[in-house]
């Protein structure tokens, strides 16, 4: 397996005399929502969006994502003064040291960004996920306690298969599988709770290749015997267009499922 570029340093290259840390679940589903606030979980997590701006997103799909994120911004901001962070697969914000648009609190900011960014190029899913998560995992590695680092939900909005393949053997360096396996191992070695990092892939449009790619990601935890940190929402004609509610519902469902997974792994703690 290839390691992601600029990956965090290894935790310890020598065998440790300390016992392995058992992941602990510090949240339960009662923390996620209530009858008065279905999105209470937004208080507890950092929310980061990675938007596919490849050429296939031109047109209705681009406007669909723009509208959904603009609708979602005030919901997130009402729970987190820091607002939301948006990154793109290809476009880099030259005015920001991390290349993203961070701390967005106003829907008009979102609309202005989408008007200024024109979809182009490929779908480099893996490298952009690494760009976002590597700094987070460095902070997590350096922390004395996982509870010192706020959990993260990375939401990837994409309409197509990562790619295109660039290697002579036809393999695809843009597939996120190696990076996800790597990060799952880091979380396990750190003893991080099951909800520490979640990656939610949400399909925009009905591309069959994208649907197959998401199906593959759904089964990574069984294929590699790793923690399940990935959730996918595939195209459903009955769902209609993408909406803020659909995104938040998908993310909440993913967090809830990881809490269940963590409870069973941790002996119900």
TrEMBL record:
Q: Which domain of life is it from?
A: Eukaryota
Q: Which SUPFAM superfamilies match?
A: vWA-like
Domain annotation VWFA: ranges:
46-251
Under Gene3D superfamilies, the record lists:
von Willebrand factor, type A domain
Q: Where is the composition biased (Pro residues)?
A: 1-12
Region ranges (Disordered):
1-23
For this protein, the record's InterPro entries field holds: VWF_A, vWFA_dom_sf
Name recorded for this polypeptide: von Willebrand factor
What is the native source organism of this protein? Answer: Ophiocordyceps camponoti-floridani
